[in-house]
């Protein structure tokens, strides 16, 4: 994608922790590439990076403003466009993973042309995606699935990559969303792929491999979310996963953005995902549960993980706060090192 670093991460006027997940993901997993954050005075959130204006960020070495927010519908609002124009005028390229494309905003295209800057639309899928064929392919694949969207599937997948590599295992993160693509430097923006090609896109991004290694595929959405279940279904079919890790936010009260839909149970979610996955891999197994316990005390989190493990008969951990060793142990036990 050739997006120039270092980055200035955009928070703007955001007041939703989940809504800044792209900026936060970069700050956590690629902090060495992030020189600062840009936020307005009414933004109560921070990534604990230096707060900078656009000229100040350029002086500090920033090359690209990353619009790392995810608002409803992925729209480029008027405030965001004005900020992006100001960043371009200060000397920054702009990268965005929103559904609205930068190239479709005349003010941004004009500013970029006048100042010789680049616009990067991360949510552009490749033009050569095939239709999925469901044929068995070599290699081992693990897919993270969830009770809801934005429950920690990307974090869990990246933590598993780190944990498995620490064991000397070959493991590679396969990004399927804009944040993961920015972190990994490549992948497929699955929610921008035409429905008929979703499974083919995953077959393409996670092809056959013969080195004994694992493709760790970032999950998207949830089979139980009315807005995103279609993407989750195609992902399960295209991934042909050997192993599933179930991700869940235990303090969430309802499906994200849908207060009239309650969260499904963990066992219910796991059974549904296994059933759908069996279409292309009848031997698929569940290997663990990943909980996002960031809003819980450590004592409560450890107790919940233990109770969940007992209930489901699977290792359960918070991959980011507690590590992934129990899940990696199960992977090794089931599939070998």
From TrEMBL:
Database matches in Pfam families: DUF1611, DUF1611_N
InterPro entries from the UniProt entry: DgcN-like, DgcN-like_C, DgcN-like_N, P-loop_NTPase
Annotated ranges, domain D-glutamate N-acetyltransferase-like C-terminal: 131-328
Native organism taxonomy: Bacteria, Pseudomonadati, Pseudomonadota, Alphaproteobacteria, Sphingomonadales
First and last residue of the signal peptide: none
Organism the protein comes from: Sphingomonas turrisvirgatae
Domain D-glutamate N-acetyltransferase-like N-terminal residue range list: 56-125
Protein name: EBNA-1 nuclear protein
